[in-house]
Structure formats: structure tokens, C-alpha cells
Amino acid sequence: MSPGSPTTFGLLASVPVCTPLRQGRPQQQVQAPPRLQPRVHKKLPVILQDGRPVCESLSSWSTSTRRSRPAPRATSPMTPTTRMAGKEDMKLLGMLVSPFAIRVRMALSMKGVSYEYAEEDLLNKSDLLLSSNPVHKMVPVLIHNGKPLCESLVIVQYVDELFAGPSILPTDPYKRATARFWAAFVDDKLCPAWIGILKETKTEDERAEKVKVAHAAIMQIEEAFPKLSEGKAFFGGDSIGYLDIVLGSCLFWFEAFRRMFDVEIIKSSEAPLLAAWAERFGETAEAKEVVPEADEAVQYAHKLRAAYAAAVTK
Ligand SMILES: N[C@@H](CCC(=O)N[C@@H](CS)C(=O)NCC(=O)O)C(=O)O
């Protein structure tokens, strides 16, 4: 949108009944918006910007509040807080096979930021992790000049905003909001299902149920891929961006499940676009630099399942 161009915003938000879904998020049956996220959540609010729907309140807020700002640039804007990579005091608390930590490592790598990396033992968490993320006690935590930041999506956006260089999130406000919508979808719908395969399944039936949920989420992303990628190789266009990192960081775990349980989360027969995207993602320099071999995940999974089993029989 160029500054001053006519824009129509319509907000569909008038139905009063809200049912908490997860973490208090309102849930409401809503008529499907016309395009782009047509059958995903069916919830309010939806903002219509020039006829294009933006779903999820946090995504639409970012779009609507940017209305009067200057037109986006192709690279991260050099605001007073935007820095050149290189001389920052950055420490990342991560774990080799944590897809969430991998997102942050990929973002730092894309911006050319050097940082100290500390591998956490999640069965014996460090005092630094516990004091830096007292709320969730999880990796990743990025400690920048002594100040901790938690939650992978928050950290990736922080890194993107802080450092100059190619933008990780789309610079266009609508595409940016849409990328955030789908990132939230990956974390709210897909991740609990595939992590559930690892943690919560004892029988084949339980596993099959989790695989079904993960698969359904994948099919929705498959349907959205052509529009999000605009016919290009990646969600981010010709090179990887925010959504590529968010979803791509999970792929080696899907391969681990295939090896462990003979289940397929992305079936090339049913999700050919995502299957081809996953191949391309794995071939990128960024993925090769940071994403571990699936066997690392298999080994970790055995260790984790043994720890869960021991905890249950105590
Ligand atoms: N929503 C979080 C999820 C982070 C997460 O699940 N981290 C896991 C490792 S993959 C963890 O630290 N688990 C430790 C625990 O559950 O105690 C994010 O995006 O950063």
C-alpha cells in the first residue's frame, strides 16, 4: 500500500459470545472470509483491508496500526534501533534438536550475527535458563546485553527488527500479518500434534490420532502454500523467510518419526507442494548450517521417552 492510498478496513467482531480455547483466546463460529485463510479457524475478529481478510487479532492489529506509516522497504529499515551485525553481546540458550531453538539460530545466521551458544540439558536445566525464563523454563532464550528474550517467534521477530540485512518477515504489512497468522497456526495446531506423537503416545491408536491431527494441519498449509509463496519456491519468495523457518525447523522431526514409527506427516501423494518445498528447504545453506540430522532427533526421542516412562512408573 502506498502512503495515502485509499484503504477500506471492515472489522467483523460483533458476536459477543466467546469460548476460551487455549490461553484465553476467544473462539467463535464465523462466516468464512472470502479469500486466503478461508476455512482455517472460522473465528472473529477478521479485518477486511481493501477486501483482503486478515485473521487473528494480533496479526490484524499489526496491519491496521501500520496504515499511516511509510511504504515498506525491501530490507529491514534502518531505524535508530537497527544495528549492523557483529559486535553484540548475544548468548543463546538452546538444545540441538529443539526446532524452536533452531528457528532462532537460523534467524541469527540469516542476519550474520555472531553469538555465544549454550547447549541446555533439559532434564537438568541450568540456573541461567531457570532465571532467564522463569515463566516457561524452556529453550530458546536469547540473552542480549544481559536481557533475556523468550519464545522463538518473539525472538525471531526481535532479531529481524534489531539487525540490518535482508528482512526475515515480509516487509509488506499485509503479507507480514499473514505470515504471523500462519506461524501462529503452526505453533497452535501443528506443533502440539507432532510433539504429542513424541510425548503422549503409547499405543498405535493414540499415535494414529495425533498423526491425523498433524496431517490435517499440514493439508491446510498445503492449500495455502500457492498464495503465500506467490508461486515461488519458498513461503518467503525466492529465498527462505519467516514461515520457512517456522515450519522448516520441524521437518527433521517428521523424518525422525518416519524412521521410528513409520508414519508420514507430509505425504508427497497428498501434499505434493509442501513435500517439494521441504526438499528445497533442506537444500538451503541456512538449513544445512543449523538443522541436525534426523538421527539426532531419533536418539533424543528414545532418551526422552525413557525419561517419561521412568517418571510414570515412579
Ligand atoms: N513456544 C515455545 C516452545 C519452546 C519449547 O517447547 N522448548 C522445549 C524444547 S523443544 C523445552 O525447552 N522444553 C523444556 C520443558 O518442557 O521443560 C517457543 O516457541 O519458544
TrEMBL record:
Cross-referenced SUPFAM superfamilies = GST C-terminal domain-like, Thioredoxin-like
Q: Which GO terms describe its biological process?
A: toxin catabolic process
Q: Where is the GST N-terminal domain?
A: 88-167
Lineage runs:
Eukaryota, Viridiplantae, Streptophyta, Embryophyta, Tracheophyta
Question: Whose protein is this, by species?
Answer: Urochloa decumbens
Q: Which UniProt keywords apply?
A: Transferase
Q: Please report the name of this protein according to its UniProt entry.
A: glutathione transferase
Gene Ontology terms, MF aspect: glutathione transferase activity
Q: Which InterPro entries match?
A: Glutathione-S-Trfase_C-like (IPR010987), Glutathione-S-Trfase_C_sf (IPR036282), Glutathione_S-Trfase (IPR040079), Glutathione_S-Trfase_N (IPR004045), GST_C_Tau (IPR045074), Omega/Tau-like (IPR045073), Thioredoxin-like_sf (IPR036249)
**Positions of the UniProt region annotated as Disordered:** 57-85
